Structure formats: structure tokens, C-alpha cells
Amino acid sequence: MSTSFDTYFREHREQHLNQLKDLLRYPSISTLPEHKADVADCAQYIASMAEQIGFENVQVMPTAGHPVVYADYLHAPNQPTVLVYGHYDVQPVDPLSLWETPPFEPDIRDGKIYARGSSDDKGQVFMHLKAFEALFKTTGTLPINVKLLFEGEEEIGSLHLPEFVEAHQDQLKADILVISDTPMLGPDQPSVCYGLRGLAALQVDVKGPKADLHSGIYGGAVQNPLHALVQILASLHDQEGRVAVPGFYDDVRALRDEERSEFATLGQSESALAQELGVKDLFGEPGFTALERTWVRPTLELNGVYGGFEGEGTKTIIPSEAHAKITCRLVPDQDPEQIQRAIANHIRAHTPPGAEVDVTLLDRGRPYVTPFDHPAIALASKAYEQAYGVPAAFIRMGGSIPIVETFQALLQMPAVLMGFALNTENFHSPNEHFSLENFDKGLRTLCYYWTGLPGTLK
Amino acid sequence: MSTSFDTYFREHREQHLNQLKDLLRYPSISTLPEHKADVADCAQYIASMAEQIGFENVQVMPTAGHPVVYADYLHAPNQPTVLVYGHYDVQPVDPLSLWETPPFEPDIRDGKIYARGSSDDKGQVFMHLKAFEALFKTTGTLPINVKLLFEGEEEIGSLHLPEFVEAHQDQLKADILVISDTPMLGPDQPSVCYGLRGLAALQVDVKGPKADLHSGIYGGAVQNPLHALVQILASLHDQEGRVAVPGFYDDVRALRDEERSEFATLGQSESALAQELGVKDLFGEPGFTALERTWVRPTLELNGVYGGFEGEGTKTIIPSEAHAKITCRLVPDQDPEQIQRAIANHIRAHTPPGAEVDVTLLDRGRPYVTPFDHPAIALASKAYEQAYGVPAAFIRMGGSIPIVETFQALLQMPAVLMGFALNTENFHSPNEHFSLENFDKGLRTLCYYWTGLPGTLK
User: Fold this and answer.
1) Are A427 and B214 a contacting pair at CB < 8 A?
2) Does A198-253+296-365 carry CATH code 3.30.70.360?
3) Which of A100, A195, A309, B6 lies in disulfide reach of A369, CB 3.0 to 4.6 Å?
4) In this complex, is the C-beta atom of B201 within 8 Å of any C-beta atom belonging to chain A?
């Protein structure tokens, strides 16, 4: 069945891809202060795109951090109102040397568009804008009431969005929340996500002598901050990969038998996954499959450790400082702040003599899980089926969208997590990319979803 | 008592300091390939200085690495021949941000000259050249036969000097070896060193997934290379600071009671040392004083650990790789290669599942100790006394001059280690400097030494 939006997408494909490239050229890296202006410029670009498409009340709204883009179109009386959330900020790009083409010079090859943010999440933010554009252009209006909310701090834990949402509860009120920031299970297996892990981040800073010391002259006299740090960090896991912080697993909701059986039917091959990731064997908490470990079990990962000399050859010093960056992925019913405090206490208890240690509590986000029998969620699976030929699977995810829990707590609306990226698309790594096949099918999925919603929800 | 060289040094002080600044401007960092040409230029500068002073057979001799500068003046028949060794290469300068003035723009303030290499060892190489210049200019000749040997690879373990010395044994033959690359015990306590620690360096590289992974999607599925690395590194020491590698202490020569008593008379204050280094407490192998731990006990130090994200904020990745740089300081009778192998075996035995580990054996140098009753060593103490007013103490050192052991083994001559730097002068750290008081007194000490040698050794 060909539809009018089908034709519209075909005829404007080249133009859309060029506009997408323009959006991907902004180096909107939210964690790096030197990119603050780029993040702001990217917000402006999205706001003007929303305005051109036909949205109203378009605003770039300041927060204590990066701005939020808001826009709405509320001209479908007696029809449902949806809040569409996405983020236009991106992860850092290091190591830059591993990118085949520069991260902010989008390049299309082999049916994929390569750039930082192409899949996570600027590409999908763009798809939402273009799906609405197609409906505007082909029907003159939208079948539902729409509010857009695109933030610039998702990659740093949505630092200021909770207070923003709290301050604008009336403005943001809607019947459902739709987010496209979760990957599909596979290229031909669209998926609707009903559970996300939460996040708890910490930084550990070990301070030793006031300057780097000559290891010949002083080696043996003082505690080496790196020695202290590796002892602290090694104490965080046991030999088999369990987190060894007391209380870490206390509030973890047990995996239900039905869930375990459902996961088993998804057919994830552990050997295929090992091959895809380039490791000889998978590894992790005993007693769980890799899928279970990444979806329903919490983790504690070292994201970075650094101190002392990193150049070629040798440098015979005792460094003055050593550092580690840690993030945990949390599952219901773990409390992020409680977990942060448990880890900080564990670190203090395991600090060897002769070193001073500071633990800083950084980002946190609550884990999320929702029943998937809501009609808006069932409709998402159907919309995927119309575009892809197969219904969506209902899955959980290992990643975190901290703000989902905030929306849930403040605005009490169900979240529909319908994404179009693939796990193999290197979201936080060099050579991030996005499949143009999913770009094309995703645009259609969204249009099917919006046009189906009035009959379903009302 | 004023001497002719005294007058010479006074009259030429300004000129000498300007020439020293010129020498210190060469960024002759031997470990960084991008500074190869700077190291070569620095060798040329030293060679032309030797030529201008009056040395003969001046040569910049290539090695498989950085070149060696050789020169001699052999016109004192029936008098002893000395080989003067020094190095014109320097340590890297990072972290650059901590330097108060740029490392290669020498700056004189508070009676000190600040620059990388000012004390270790270009400043002292320069003093040898200027001491000989003073003797040439005031007496028209040298009282002894002199061979100069200045290398460009000391900071990377004198990689190619052993084969160079072996290939040029006849050319380098001498009665004694004189080196100024060891610090004095304190500002008013000149010292002659009779023992040095050896060196054994290794690099550990842990390889995990083929690219950095999103910690939400894959956290829990694979071994994190940083987790593997910190477990390996934490296993290298016990909780109290002893090295935990099996066999590490097997060949360590026990500390003699007389030596322990002698060290005790040197009056090192541990609380003063802690304050100088900016730590609350010193720390190290139980059962030994800090002086003993740094002079006669071996160590294993992490000089650098790195992997993953180092920027501000958080980046939720599992890094693909993790690395560590290790150097050991060794004492008689430990064998550097045997120690490297013991550590490599220990690392392999402590590698957790799911990670691949490479251990690379890098620089090594044997520890050195010599009896100090040789007349050339006694004369050094007397020469210090003439310039400083106090005789030199006989001390051991925690640092390494790997080539001392090579000279000993190949050329069988006693080494006189008479240096003029101070431990507080930040040799391998930001803001390296050299006291101009020791520069002035050191020039005189060397002239007293050379003029005293004919009567003493002959």
C-alpha cells in the first residue's frame, strides 16, 4: 500500500539526507565545556527546523546547563496529546584516530550515514521532525496534539532536565511520552522497549606527593597513588565478575521465570555476540546469560583510569595523582544515590595507607520498567509491522535514559520507547553510523503510528 | 685562597650562564621520536663547545639510537687518564601545565636556573666543559689526560651505549670514570656515591573488545580491560607495600649492620621528608627506614596507568584497551632480566578470564656498588671540602645510572660519582632547576679535583 507520506519521503530523500548532514555537523558534545557554544548552536538549528515545518511556540529554553528546545502543535481537539522527547547532544569522539571519516563530517557509504550522533540520537530526533513534516505537507495538519522536547544533556545524565520538567509540568502534560533512543533487537527485528537500566556515576581521585617524583630517588619512600588506586579498584569486583561492594545487590528485583523464558526465545547467540565484539569469550556475573546480565542485572564499570606517564618508552616517576571514572548500570529497585554512597563507603574502607582519596558523586538516573499492555505500546508494535513486515518484539535494555523515570514520576504517563538504531552502530565509539534502511522505514513507522493513534487512544 | 680558575669563573660568570641557557634550550627528550632531531642538534652543540674549549678528536658518533659525543685531550704523559661521562638527553616534560616557566626557556630566579635538564644532567655536563675550559685558559693545558663521553639515551636506559662501549674499549680506556649525575645529600652536604640501584622496565597491555563499547548495551557481557588490568596490578604488591612477585627478593643482598649504623648517622628526618614531598606519612616495605628503602631495597613502581575516558564528566564506555608502565629499582645482586621475567610470569598467572595481556620487557640496568677506599674517591671528598668547607659524605643512591655497571664490567675502572644537584630540584618533574650556588662551587670542586689528581693517582 502506497500512502501520500510514502511518496513525500521518496521525493524528498536527497533533501532530507542533506539536512540530516547539516544537523550532524554540529559538534554538540555536552560533556566538554569547550563545545558549549556548539551545543547551543545545534539547539538553534533544531528550533528553526521545527519552526519551518509548522510547529508553534518554538522556544530554545535555557537551563543551568545546556538549553532545551520546545515546540508544539495543538490543533487536534478531542485527540490525544503526545510528548516527543529526544536529545541533540552527543558523546565525545576520542580516540579520534580510529574514525575512518571525521566524526563531524557526515559521510554516506554502504547504505549508512557515518557521524557522531547519527544514531544516538540526532538522527532519530531528525526523523521525528521529518515524519511530522510529511504529515503537515501531505495533510495540512497533524492528527494528534504534539509537544516536542529535545534536550542537550542526555549524555551527561540529563543534569538539569528534572528541574526543568518539574518547573514546566503544565506545559509538558500529555497522554503519552514517545522516545526514539533505544535500539532494535536486530536489522529485521524492530523492538519496543519496556525496561531500562538506571545510572550512577562516580569519580575517584587519589592524591599522593605534591609533584611527580623521581622513582629512583623516592621509590620506596612514599605510597604511589597508582598503587593505591589499583588496590581500591580491584576491590570493587570479585574474581568471577560480581560486584563486591556490600549491599550492591540488596534491592535488585529478582528475574521472573516468565521473563527468563521470554528472553530465551529471542535467540541471542553468545558466540555470535563474542565474535561481533571481537573477544574470545564473553565474561560476567555467574548464573546469568549475557542477555540477562545486560538487561536485568546491575553492573559497575570502570570507564577510564589514568595517572602518570602515557607516552612511548619509559618515564621513571611516581605520579602525583591518579584517577578513575566509574559508572554503574542499575536495575529495579536499586536507588542510584544509595548505590553511589555504598561505593564511596567501600572505597574509603579500601583506601591503603599513605594516600588521600576523594570520591565525587556524579550523574545518576533511576532504572525503569513499565507494563507493556498499554494500547499506545501495542500500537507501536503494529506501526513497526506496517513498515517492516514484522511486529516489534517487547524487550528490555541495558542502557539508561534517566529522564524516562523522571517523566514517569512527575507526569505519570506511559513511555513508548520505539527506536530505529542498531546495537552494532557504535553509539559511543568511533565510526558511529545509522542505517539508511532504518531511516527510511523508521520515517514510515512514525507516520503509521501518529495516524493510528487517534483511533487507538481516544 | 683565591686561585686563577676562581678569578676566571668570576669574570666569565655571565657569559657561562648565557651559554648554559643556550644548551638548555634544546628539547633533547630522548624517549619521544618527534624530538630525534633536537637530540641530534644538542649533540652537535656540545661537540662544538668541546672543540672551542680546546679538546681534540671531537666526534658526534652515531649509534642505532641517539648519538654519542666523544672528545679527548691526551697531552699529560705519565699522568692518569680520566673518562668523564654525562648525558645530554632529558626526561619528557608533561604535565606541561604545572611548569611556572616553559621547560625549554631557561629562567633564572631566586638563585636557581629553571629548565628541563638544568640539573639532570645537561647542567652538570656543562660544568665539566667549563671546568676544563678554565684550566685550559689559565694554564694552557690540562694536568691529566681527559676523555669525554656524553650520551643521548640515559633517560631511556642507555639503550645503545653498552654495545658502543664494547665496540670502542680501546678508545675509552682510562684509569678512572668520573660522573656528575648523582645528587648531594643536602645543600651544604656534598656527597660521593658508592652504590646505585639498577632498573628493570616493563609495559603491560590489556586487550579487550575490538572497539570501545557502550556500557549500557554491553555492560555485564564482556570483561572490561580496565577491570582485568587493576586486578593484575593490585596483585603486584601486598597490603603493606612489599612486592608480591614470587622470587623478587631472592637475590637481594642483606643490609649489613655497619651500613645500617652509618646510614643512621646521616640524620635523615622522615617527617621532614614527608613535609618536603607533601604527604601526610611516608609509606613502604615494613622493617626498613625510608633511607634504606630508597637506597638498598628494591621497588616496583607503576609509572603510568591509562585506558578509557580521561575528559571532564562521564563517558559510559567499556574501553577496548588498558595499559600500564612499570619500572623496578633493583639492588645487588638482583638480575634485571630475571626480575623482568618473574614479573611477566606473575602477570600471566594473575590475568583474569576474558582478557588478553601482552607484557613487553623494556629497559634494564644492573645495580652497582663499589668499595670507597680508592684514592680517586677519597680525593673527590677532599675537593668538595676545598670548595664547600665540609668533606663529602659517602652515600648510596636510589637512582640508576645503568651504564656505570657496564663500564665496570667492560673497562674495569673505579667510578667516582660526584654530583652537584639536590634531590629537591625536581629532576623528572615540572620546574626542574639547579642551584647557582652549587653551579659556582661545583666548578671549583672539579678544578680542585683535576689539579689534585696527578699527585694522588700517580
Assistant:
1) yes
2) yes
3) A195
4) yes
